[in-house]
Structures are given as structure tokens and as C-alpha cells.
Task: structure prediction
Amino acid sequence: MTRGAGDLMDYRVTIGLETHVQLKTQTKIWCGCRNRFGQPPNTDVCPVCLGYPGTLPVLNRESVRLTVMAGLMLGCRINERSTFDRKSYFYPDMPKNYQISQYDEPLCLGGRLEIEVNGRKKSIGITRIHLEEDVGKSIHYEQSSGVDFNRAGTPLMEIVSEPEIESADEAFAYLTALKQVLLYGGISDCNLEEGNIRSDINCSVRPVEREELGTKIEIKNMNTFRGVHRSLVYEISRQINVLNDGGSISQETRRWNDETGVTEAMRTKEYAHDYRYFPEPDLMPVVLTREQIEGWRATIPELPGDRRARFVREYGLSEYDAGVLSADRNVADYYEEAARASGHFKAVSNWIMTDMLHAMSEGAIPIQEVKITPGALAGLIDLVDRQVINRPSAKRVFTILFEKGGNPADIVEQEGLSQVRDTESLETYIDEAITAHPQSVSDYRSGKKAALKFLVGQVMRLSKGKADPQMALEMLRERLDTG
Amino acid sequence: MMAQESSKNTRHIDVAYVAQLARMQLSDKEVPLFQDQLNHILHHVDTLMRLDVDDVEPTSHPFPGENVYRDDEPREGLAHEAAMKNAPKTRAGFYVVPKILE
Ligand SMILES: [Zn+2]
Result:
């Protein structure tokens, strides 16, 4: 039997991700230099992070807490005793010629992350999380390279997944869910443009009928989730094609070329490492007490998945709406505050899901910087509910609130947007509309019901959009049917 | 990535290989010289290995102690000029090194 070329159905895909996450601390992991992005090269440096001989690292307490928090949020076991090790290698961006990492006693072991792909829920195992230091950054000139050590010594957490990811979509969902959890916990800013999250991918394929795993390919240093997805789509089909053609996969490290959209083999020499891990003599073990760990556990915020379920339960939102609103902790906080202030849970959700998120993405404004407060949104919804303003006016008020902030009632006042609901004023507009459009009147009377809609439109136009359209419709119908 | 642990065998040190890992250039004469010296050290380790240490806790650190931390508070580092002062070559604030093969 021959296989169809590249037929995914005949193969099983096995993917594991090693994800490096920069922690949100004020300072670096071993020294008091600032942990921040975008400074001129080699300005956030000191003898420690430049690897000068004779200097000693001192562990940043906060980096331990953040790593343990991440572990707790991912359901890991926290090692009460944890140690650091030296990983030796030579590269110009690593000034000490070794990276301090954790080898056999990491801070966190065993955890799980829930993902959802096409409505199917799945749980991916977390093998371990350890704490290490980031390296410097290099840029390349014609004949030489330049090194900036501002990033060197940034606290970096490596989260290793079990090889339980089975498609490019699942890998993408895993990273998205991971980012959500880390943002919820305030562990990292998770800013991909600034390189806060970088992943190494391990990927192999094997015929469905085979038990043992296929040969593993590593793809190094992916800094976007989209890149991870694209490189996996490419790599999975490449490996399947090789196997279909009767070839075999040899273990190697590949590099994703984002421009050409292919993975390329790296030369063997470039990744042939023998790290010679050994215990770091300059750092003492980290020993955490039960009380300390439980104290941190008590500060874990509600996880995104739990919050989503609660939004469905408590506010009667659809799964979809609850998912969108809980995806970002700040959006979720905003929703809850506005929903509680308003009581109209569904209306608040609708405003945020449509007008708010749209305006935010248009202006690339995060919800924390939005000028309309949750209380103002609740107030606006109340004005619509009490029929003080109609829908089109409410949209105008929203736009003004979004741009300038303020009190919705004041804006309605200033802009003269109060809905016209007194019969006398409406009669005036109706008279005017009927006089101006006798044809529509006779059309309606001869059975063309659509003409009524046109006349309501005229009333709205004459009232500059302030008439209550429902009242105008009823009054017009009564006038035409009886007149 | 977790390293593949190589050279599990402590009874032999491949001097040429280790020198290459450590980016040390050894002459043809030095390789056997160091090989011999390191073999002596290993021989001594072998002697130690004969001790009965079943009741002894493994030690990875010469000093007792744990939990040495600093608070997450910024401290003044090196001024940029000072940091660059001893660099053989710089360019636009970067340290210049021989071309890195990515
Ligand atoms: Zn420093």
C-alpha cells in the first residue's frame, strides 16, 4: 500500500515546548541593575552581570517568588529545596562563559495547563519550571559582531512541557493559555515584541501504527506564537514527506526562517554542546517552608479558565462572550466592575465586546488606559435603559466618553442628545414629515407598509436623531391609519 | 535544554576534548603531560571512592547555609563609559567581538 503524500492522518505528531519567560522584576537576578527593555546598549550593567572575575551573584528574592507563583498557578509541586548549577558554554553574549541555571533540583516539578482547540479541551503536562539567567544580545556587522549586556542577568524562567502537544494548533493554544496565566499572575509582561517569551520546539512524527517516538527535531529560539505555529506546520509536513518518500529523519537542530517560511538545518558544530553541569558554588540552596509556599498560594488570583466559567454562571454570559471577556485579566476586571455597577450584565458585555474592544484595537489602547470608566459605562447603559437617549445617540456618547472621559449624563446634556419623547414635539416632526412626503403617505395607505419606515426615518432626520424611534413609529401609524 | 550528560566515566579524562570545550589550546607536548597529571588526580579520587560513606549526607557546598537573597531594589551599576573602558573595541555603545556565527 502506498500512502498519499504528506497525509497527516497516517502520522502522529509529538511536540514538546521549552518556553523561556522573562520575569517582571525591578532588577536583574544576581545584581541590582535594572531589568528593563529599550535602553541604550550597555547602560544597565555592572561588574556582576558583565561577568567580571571576583564578583559574586546574590539571588533576587522576587524572582524566586514569581517562579513559585507560576508553578502554583500551573499546578506544580514546589520543591522545598532547590539548587543552582553552572551550565558551561562559550558564546560572546554569555560573559561568564557559563550560565547559572537549575539542573536536577528545579523550583517546580509536574503541572498541567488546560488548552482548547476547536472546542475540544485538553490538558498538557508541565514537566518542570526552573529559574536561570538570560544572556546578552548580539547584533551583526559585516566583519564583526556587537554585544549588549543590558539583557544579561534578566531573571528567566524555563517552562518545559511534556511531549503531549499533537499539532501546530495545540502548540499555539498552549502558548496562548500559558501567556494568559502568566499575565493573570503578574509573573511577566509577556510582551512578545520585547522578547519576553521565547520558545524552543521539539517535534517528531511517526506512523500511527508505530509505538516508539520518531526522531526528534529541535527548532530554536522562536519569539512569536505565530512563528511557532507556522514553523510547525512546515516542519510536520516536511518530516512526513521525508518519511513518505522512504527517507529517514536525522536528529538535528533547525532554524525557522520567517521570510522564506521554511526551517533550515543548522550546522552540527553550532549546537554540539557538552554543558558539563555542576553545582554552582557561589549560590546557596533555596529552602522554602510549607508556610511560605502556602502563603504564596493564598495570593493566587482566579485563573482565566475559572473566571470564564464563573462569568457564564454568575452573569449568564455565553461561553464565547465569557471567553473573550476573561482572556485579559484587565478586561475581565473592567467587565466585572461595570457589570456590578450596572446590573445589566448582558448589556455591559455587549458594549465591551463590540464598541469598546473595537475602539481599543483601533487606537491600540490597552483597557487600563481607556478614559471611559466602568462607572461611566454603567451610567451610559442606564441612560439607554431609561430611554433618556436612543441607540445612535448612545453610540455618540460612547465615542466621546472613550476619547475624553467624563460623565455620560453631562455629555447628553452638552450635546443635546436627550431623546425627544414628548408627544407635542414629536407631532411637530410628524406633521412636517407628512407634509413633505405626500407620496409616501398615499403609498402607505394603499398597502405599501415600507413607506412607514421611510417616514419614521424622516422624523429621525428632522429631530437630528433624537426622537424615540419606537414612539415616532407608533404615533405615525396611528395618524395614518385613522387620518 | 537539558544537557546530555557525557563522559560519565570519571576514570578517564579526555584531555584534548576537555581542552577544546574550555577553548584552551594545548601543544602536542602538553596533552600527555596534563593527561598524566589528571590521571594522578583520578587515582586519588579512586582511593577516596573506597571509603564507606553510606552514612554521610552528600555535600554540594563547602559552607552550611541557605536562602541568601537580595531584595528586588535597583542599585547603581557601572557608568557606560566605565563599562566600555577596557574593551579592545567598541562601536555605537556595543562591545565588538569577532563575528558570531548564528
Ligand atoms: Zn548588573
Observations:
- Residues 225-244 of chain A form the longest helix (20 residues).
- Chain A touches chain B through 59 residues (CB under 8 Å).
- The pocket of zinc ion is lined by residues A 28, 31, 33, 45-46, 48-49, 153; B 77 (CB under 6 Å).
